[in-house]
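sorry to bug you again but im stuck and you know this stuff better than me. what follows is a protein written twice so to speak, once as letters and once as structure tokens for the fold. id like you to explain what the token line says about the fold, in plain words if possible. anything you notice is useful, everything is just below.
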Amino acid sequence: MRRVICTFYIVLFALFSMHATCGARKPTTMKPIEAARISDKVYFHNVSITHDGSHYFTINGGNDSYCTLNEYDDEGNLVDAYDVGLDARSICFNPRDNRLYVKTYGSSLYVVDLDAESAEVALHGVFDADNSSIAVTTDGRRIYELAEGRVKVLDFKNGKELKHFTLTDYFDEHGFHSSIAVSDKHLFVWGDTDSIVVYDLNGIYVTQFRLPRSGYGFSLSYCNKMLWIAQDADASTDGGNGYWYGYRL
């Protein structure tokens, strides 16, 4: 009898210990820390930024007759500017082929040739929203598009839809409701003009956080291990300076 009682208390102690050490997981938190700033002169709007491992590339949107694709070194110094004739919504570097891609106003993806200052269609008619600002995964295999709360995941090689899911809590306002950024583990969308909602790569809610400043809706980007937003130039055919801010999380 004594042995049975002793065994009972041992089991009870073990269960109590498991409850104490394996309780509910603490919620994930992210704190944005400003780590980079780039002054970016464009026509009209600062819509997107990417990084190829050594240089940043930005592109404007608003008018395909006034296009500028700017190249900067890692310190934010201008290296060169190109006119590839695109009314852009996002620019992405794909490490699988070391090429730059631009999603324009419309439903197609273009591949850019900086030497020739030209672009040609890489994927035709694969996107759902004209104004969507897409994101490419860090391995270059997948494309994410947000349109009216629905996220479509495409195979980068052929543009075929792999899956889709619906998000909640995104900011439903022009420019903000169709922009998405992606890291190796997370999706980022606007929760407001100065806040970000974070999901995993399957659209499961993770957390949200507030930024120290507001940003332009189309500008939400992720590159060089930082989340980026722009304070828009909101310029015209004369051009103007906008500012990119990179945040480590």
